Amino acid sequence: MLPWFSDDSFPLYLAPMAGVTDAVFRSLCKELGADVMVTEFVSAEGIMQADGRTRKYVDFDDAQRPLGVQLFGADGVRMGEAARKIIDWKQPDFIDINFGCPVNKVVSKNGGSSLLKDCPLLESVAREIVKAVPIPVTAKMRIGWDANQINAVEVAKRLEDCGVQAIAVHGRTRAQGYTGLADWEVIGAVADAVKVPVIGNGDVSTGADVELRRAQTTVRGIMIGRAAMVNPWVFQEAKHFLKHGVQPTSAPAEVRLQFMRRHCAMAIERGLKHGSTELQTMRSMRSRLMNYTKCLPAGKLLRIRFAQVASLTELEDLAADYLAHRAAAGAAPAAEELSNISAEAGQEPLA
Question: Is 101 among the catalytic positions?
Fold first, then answer.
């Protein structure tokens, strides 16, 4: 049994997200209360070719443990060999298999959620990896390929029979992508159908959401993805809610802006080690920064300005300007404040 599933524990996972859950973001979320980490998915073939860029994705430090490396592919033997290479490099706590990615470039290679349409192949992949490695193997999947092929319970039973020790279930089909609502009835049915821990994933953004899903299903943990992109404090807030029954006060603007600066500074430092310039890193951080502003008053204006931010110094200046305008605005209504900031920035007021 995975040790983080003790009788009284209810772990919160940071969901693996390509281009998001890199080593820096995982470290930050760990500080903010995430219990279990999973890397961005990595190609088993990339690992087998000893590709330096692919290997970078499996890097982590011990403070992020327990941590699993997520692999995708469709050849179980090759994936098992890749998993052994990863274990030789880094010794993760578990290997996670990606049976959920809906992206075309993964599905077209018969990886990710495409395996939900071919249960014998999916079972072969899982069995070969379990056989190949000396550490636990887990899996992440969707509830099915589309509304006519919802087979999560069958898939989960097959995975359990193969020796997979925990299963994360995203409550959408591949056809849904990230649209519509997650189907927690199916997630609950999976949790009831197998003895291994099931981790529920989908539409969880507050402590109240976590408590609701824990009360309504027999899931043993929750995986949070897109909500953490906007509000990394979600793990901390959820734990507070589970303990006290109330939502804590949200992190203030000053703290959020300090967090953004720290995230960028850490990303720049890591990028320099891998040959990226500050400008290249800041360009890659723009979408991340824009996501963070969704929890800020007048965040829409910041998003416009962050879309072109090119350096850490520029980010610091934008943050200082924002806080100065906020302080000057005092108790001004949000619309009036936004108009004042836009006018001084030489831009049209935003709705």
Answer: yes
